[in-house]
Amino acid sequence: MSNKKTKKDQQLEQFRTDDAGKHMTTNHGVKVSEDEFSLKAGERGPTLLEDFHFREKMTHFDHERIPERIVHARGFSAHGEFELYESLEKYTKADFLTDTSKKTPTFVRFSTVAGSKGSAETVRDARGFATKFYTDEGNYDLVGNNIPVFFIQDAMKFPDLVHALKPEPHNGMPQAASAHDTFWDFVGQNQESAHMVMWTMSDRAIPRSFRMMEGFGVHTFRLVNKEGNAHFVKFHWKPVLGTHSLVWDEAQKINGKDPDFHRGDLYQSIETGDYPEYELGIQVIPEEDEFKFDFDILDPTKLWPEEDVPVQIVGKMTLKRNVDNVFAENEQVAFHPGNVVPGIDFTNDPLLQGRLFSYTDTQLIRLGGPNFHELPINRPVCPFFNNHRDGYGRQTINKGQVSYHKNALASNTPTPATEEEGGYKHYQERVEGYKIRARSDSFKDHFSQAALFWNSMSDHEKNHLIQAFSFELGKVESLEVREQVVEMFANVSLELAKGFAKNIGVTPPESGGSDVTKSSPALSQANTAHKPDTRKVGVILANGFKGKDVKRALKKLSSEGIMVEVISDQQGVVKGEENTEITVDHTFLTTDSVLYDALYAVGGCNEEEAFKKHASHFLNEAFSHYKPLGATHNAVEWLKDNKLYGHTGVVSGEDMDSFVSEFVQAVSAHRHWGRQMI
């Protein structure tokens, strides 16, 4: 891990404690002489109420839990640092976006949306990607998702969406899944959700890793510069490793084999020094171009196609340190899209406007009152002064007799700051109109960008979409709901609707489709970066392997940034020729093919039939998930026996240098979709 401390690390130091080697005390500092037995009247007598240590210990335990988040309950976090590549002073006066010499501490929480705190992580779902920047001007929270759009256009409908998405109230099922009647009934009755549903049915909803997942601010914000000029902006996080996903069968099996798969991947990558990196990108539209496009730029169900509004890469965030305590940091962190700094402002996006109220309101009940900003993980690195007082969990000890504005007794301090002194000034947007409950006509096109998304997918991604709709709707009991969803998505693509209609027992539509022919290559994961870095390869070894060859291959794989784990039939070491010994990381019983990006099978001259059976299962399952396979020495025959030899992404050979080179290329490709034709 990184040894360099950020400003936030230094601030948190005063709150950290290490109990090792210390005497036990009560919360009030009294040393405790016994922690096994409660105080009783005689050895077999009743417990005495005066046992203050027992009362304190049990009371604290009884109140350990706080309400979990209604959505985004299942999450994991890490500390990082943001560096700016180039000053954005022509767009904004925000200090952390204009001073390239600064390194801004950050805290990121990744999460699923639908499931409870105890749910599995590789479910089909949108993922939260929330970033807290601890700037010198205050905290800025970029509270986003791994999908750039949302289900609804107005925050008024958010409770309805979540009620429909959550487990059905009459039986509490299903957990962390959208494959049920109420969710799809909501979709069919609220067609503004079409674009977001396309994303959540795509591979984007089952990411390979938090480290290989894009992040989006979703909403349209404003950047305001020192001159008071404003630009519309959307924020992007681009993972340096590229954007990659699991396949559905694999994701379901991982949920059973390792429900902590995503948090484990993030935690281990940081512990081993493979720090996750994300580049910050912005899309900028001048105010005068607000109505230039064939969609409303304030509509949260619409994205700005990158081919029309290019993403400018302006900085990079690196996650360098794991949390010290999951509850104190990951659970108590409070994000809020209303936490902005001078130079960043809001727009009239009606979903954003509602979030500006909802997020604070949520924290008041979840974290016990209005002082949640004083919890260590939420405290800004800059000092804060105001006339707020008291309330649950107050930590600040305010001195003096004055807690109001204006005052003479304290020379009218704390004093509001002028704009020149760094005071926040809201952008002066001209607003006029009648009070009305209505939606702008410019928000009423629900299918064009859903069609754009479909048009942008590769053939295998389109096939995955059809299969995802088939699975999800195949779990829906109501024929009426299935029919209305088929009818709805016939407006997006007739090919798509016909493709899943026949799989769910609905008469395929005869008419429909979209006139949209435009595509956006940036939306397809087929066009992402492909690197071998940090990919995990399972190496299947048996006693009697070619020692020098294998050691050489493993060393070369590691030099390419690939993580190798040795799998055998027993723990301990596996012994090869030339007195070679290699430590076994996992047995066939303690791991599974779905937990690896690729497999490299070697075998050995002493493997038994049971070993070959286990190895064949691993290889066949990985092959079915389109993963790269490598084999040398004895294991080449395993490929042939299982009819895997010679297929795309299957590499074998005896020249170790050429084998490793070809295998690394296969691993970099992530998946080999040509096998879908087999």
Task: Tell me what you see in this structure.
By secondary structure, the protein is an alpha/beta fold. The chain has three domains: 75-180 and 205-290 and 307-374, Catalase HpII,  Chain A, domain 1; 448-526, Catalase, four-helical domain (Hemocyanin, N-terminal domain), CATH 1.20.1370; 530-677, Rossmann fold. Helix content is 26%, strand content 16%. The chain has 17 helices and 18 strands. The protein has helices at residues 7-13, 52-62, 158-165, 181-189, 194-200, 248-257, 261-271, 326-331, 350-366, 448-456, 459-474, 479-489, 494-501, 547-559, 609-624, 635-641, 656-668, and strands spanning 75-84, 103-112, 127-135, 138-145, 215-216, 221-224, 230-239, 277-286, 312-322, 344-345, 536-541, 563-568, 573-576, 580-583, 586-587, 598-603, 629-631, 650-652. Strands 1, 2, 3, 4, 5, 6, 7, 8, 9 and 10 form a ten-stranded antiparallel beta sheet that branches. The chain has a six-stranded parallel beta sheet with strand order 15-12-11-16-17-18, sandwiched between helices. It starts with 6 loop residues before the first helix and ends in a 10-residue tail after the last helix. The mean pLDDT is 95.
